[in-house]
Amino acid sequence: MPRPKTLPDRDVLEAALRIIHERGPEALTFASLATACGLSPATLVQRFGGKDELKRAALLHAWDGLDDKTARLAGTVAKTPDGAVQMLVGLSGDYGGIEAYAEGLLVLREDLRDPALRARGAAWKEALTGALEACFSATPHAPPGIGLLMASQWQGSLLWWGFDPRGRLDDFVEDGLRRFVEAVVMEGARHD
């Protein structure tokens, strides 16, 4: 079968992300991507430059997808504490099983090393915490900064599940987030 002459960047970057998630960031080479997408290594070098630029483009593409998913969820969940829980549970579904989660931590390492990727993470934090804050806007006794508190609880839940991955990740996350909301928000109402 002949190689395709063209393929949209989006499709090429999706193939690159599959390699990164299945085999780790170091497995992404022009040769491995050429095998995965059918374009020649020379064509890929012309499009993306060096290996670092290719990896950055793939990970920026992943950030685009996460931004889109976050905005979509923020636009569809109820503006309530339950909606905040649903949003974070919805974002948790992409992690898969423990092996996929562990590989995802290698991707996080790449995000932390690269200033452009780190900036995308910081921007996403602002968008996510703002969306979570909106879910608590009509909730009396929600503490200031509840969005960042809840996002931090969510990330901690993901990590703790990773050490003891019994049961489904989304169930573990949902349970932890519901207990967090009860402890932080609802308990404050009881003291008034």
Automatic annotation (TrEMBL):
Keywords, sorted A to Z: DNA-binding, Transcription, Transcription regulation
InterPro entries attached to this UniProt entry: Homeodomain-like_sf (IPR009057), HTH-type_TetR-like_transc_reg (IPR050109), HTH_TetR (IPR001647)
Record feature DNA-binding region, as residue ranges: 29-48
Presence of keyword Transcription: yes
HTH tetR-type domain sequence ranges: 6-66
Alphabetical list of Gene3D superfamilies matching this protein: Tetracycline Repressor, domain 2
GO molecular function annotations of the record: DNA-binding transcription factor activity; transcription cis-regulatory region binding
One Pfam match: TetR_N
Protein name: TetR family transcriptional regulator
